[in-house]
Structures are given as structure tokens and as C-alpha cells.
Amino acid sequence: MSTNDSAAKLPVYLLTGFLGSGKTTLLARLIHQPGFADTAVIVNEFGAVGLDHVLIEKSDDSDIMLLDSGCLCCATNSPLQDCLEDLYYRRLRREIPSFGRVVVETSGLADPGPLVNALMADPSVAAHYRFAGVVTTLDAVHGRDALASFREAATQLALADRIVITKADLASPSDLAAIGAAATQGNPYASLLQSPLPDACAPHDILAGLQTHDIRLQPAQGHDESTQPPGRFAHLFRYGISSHVLRVEQAVGWPQYAAWVDAMQRELGEHLLRVKGILPFDDGHVYAIHGVHHLFSPPQMLGGTIPRPALGTVVVIAQDISASELGRIFPLLKGEMRQEDG
């Protein structure tokens, strides 16, 4: 896939977060903003979002609604693939207004992994859309309790590309420091965005610059490094979720990459929560790689200049997998797993 082909496809973002984390409130505020007018939002049901008071027009089909901001909302129980395909062709036939991106709100108890797989690996989706990343909301007041008590909350955090810390206006400075540390411990490679109020974050703040191949190895700007837990490259989180980094210093061959993917699938399977990285290949191009559980999407060719710290970096987030187990697979890429002690 060429860079131009990928850029021409409509970006799809997943908005996830545990029950009560402010995810639905954030979405409800965003759809009122002019910057969200070119967005199609897919939700499970309108009753859960409370959008009825802003509806000004309803299409002939009851599952598509046009909001006063120009944002489209789709309520459906169909599989995500079917909903996205339906939206695309209605857009093409001009049955609904054009949109430039899609935001999918997951339920508070959902594992985002299967949806990420659907966006990355389903051919009907990949024909018109590209997976643009996962945004996870984390409650500054009750988020630590959720992470400690519910595996789903920890998984949502681990799969995030961007973490939005909500309800910051209700939290004490010590609470904010603690939730920042918990967020970084659960996912040291996601960017952090702090929101005192849901409507204080514009769509640009939430979504702009969010790329699944944007690998962050440093704390987000504006966050105190003293909140970072020791060992940024191999944190053991509750429920056995750990993060690891692989550095590849030389170009990778396609057979070599295929053998590595096969080994990851066979030996890790469902324990593999997420893989993302940027690899130089021996065909002279640089590719973004993505995987969730046992499914890997075809590498995407990247254009432009890739920041040096990210080039040749692969991040692996896994559950109940030790560093030594990963160490047996990593050499297939002729790389090494590097761990820091803080």
C-alpha cells in the first residue's frame, strides 16, 4: 500500500474508556463543536449517549441521524464492518452528508482488541478506511480503583494510543500525580492529555497527530517525570499486563518478518494484546506494523521523515508473557530487547 493510498482512506478512531470515566460525556460535548462537523460517530444506542435533544433532522433510515453541528450519528447493532461499509456507500450515493473521519464509541466494558482487528484486518473495511488509533478516557478521581478492580479497564488503557485524563477539575494534585503514574505504568507509550472539563478539549486536541505508528518512548510533555514508574520498557501491571520494546538496528527482510509474525502468533496468540512499530525493510522502504492478539495487518508503507527514536522500534504489550519468552522470538528480527531499570 502506498502512502497516498493510505492517506486517501477515511480515518477511524476508537473512543474507549471504562464505565463512568467520562467517555460518553466527552463525546457528547465534542459533537457540538464546529471542528467535529465532518465526523460520523458510531455508538451502540442513542439512549446511552443522550443526544436526542440536539437532533434536528432524521434520515429515512432510523439508524442515521444528523446533528445540529453537522455531525452524523449512527446507532446500530450491526457488526462494525457492516456499519462502516453502509456509511461509506451512503456517503458515496450522497444519501447522507459527506464526512471526513469516523469515531467509534465502544461500551464501557468492551475489550477494544476485536474492534481494532476489524479495522486493521477486514478487507471490506480496509478498502475505504484506515485505523487511526485508540483514545481511552481515564477518570482522575476513580480511575485507579477501576484499573485495580477490572481487567477490562486495564486492557483499554494498555491498547490506547492517547489517554485523556478526565475530571481533572475534581481531583487533588496528589490524585492527578497518582493517576498520571498509573496511566504511564499501564501504557508508557501512549500520549497523555489532561482535560479539566470535557468541553475544554477540542477535536484537534483529542485526535490531531494521533498515528498508530507514532511510538512515544518519553513521558508526555507537561507531565512530571517523577510520576513515572521505574523501568519504562518492561512494566508488570496488574493482571500480568506488561510492556516491552524491541530495537532493530538493520533492515528486515520480508521472509524474516513473516517468520517473526508466525512465531508471535503461534507462541503468544491471545496473550498478545497489541504490537505496533516502525521497521526499515530491505526493499528500501519504511513500514508501520500493527497486530492485536493473533492477527497482524499488512505493513503500511510510510512516507516522510521518521523520527530517529521511533525508527526500528517495536512495542509489544502482552499478558502473562515474560521478557524471557519474548526474548526467544525477538531475535528472528535480528534485533534485541532492551530493558531499562529507570
From TrEMBL:
Q: Which UniProt keywords apply?
A: Chaperone, Hydrolase, Nucleotide-binding
Q: Which GO terms describe its molecular function?
A: hydrolase activity; nucleotide binding
Known catalysed reaction(s)? GTP + H2O = GDP + phosphate + H(+)
Pfam families per the UniProt record, alphabetical: cobW, CobW_C
SMART domains hit by this protein: CobW_C (SM00833)
Q: Name one GO cellular component term.
A: cytoplasm
Entry similarity comment = Belongs to the SIMIBI class G3E GTPase family. ZNG1 subfamily.
The name of this protein is G3E family GTPase
**Record-annotated CobW C-terminal domain positions:** 241-334
Gene3D superfamilies, sorted: CobW-like, C-terminal domain, P-loop containing nucleotide triphosphate hydrolases
Q: Outline what the protein does.
A: Zinc chaperone that directly transfers zinc cofactor to target proteins, thereby activating them. Zinc is transferred from the CXCC motif in the GTPase domain to the zinc binding site in target proteins in a process requiring GTP hydrolysis.
